[in-house]
User: Fold this.
Amino acid sequence: MLQIDEMDPSQSINDLFQPLYQRASNIYTFVALRNQADEISRDYGTGELSNMTEAHLVIDICDHEGATVTELAEMSCRTKSAISQIIAKIEKRAISPANAAKAITGCTTSIPPKRGCASAANTRFTMYR
Assistant:
């Protein structure tokens, strides 16, 4: 790491920080584009349009049967309120956990419980609120 006393006196502070600023700007642009991509609705095989955030939540519910909203929020680095809102949005569109999970993950009741959706297939999302 470059120390202040090792700096070339002919370079200005601006010259030194410009490449760092450009890297930070590139990272910010990537994150902004990634966030936009997450919100684009797609058909993940359910016949319904869902965004990536919703798809990942269905996967988390299947992978962690019986998980609470708090646990789902911690897994996805979201607030409990955000998770509840996403679940309500999925319920409003009446996407069944079984159909969504099967289409998105290939998850079926024949998969062992650690990775499966045996309970989720017969349970409404409301149990996770």
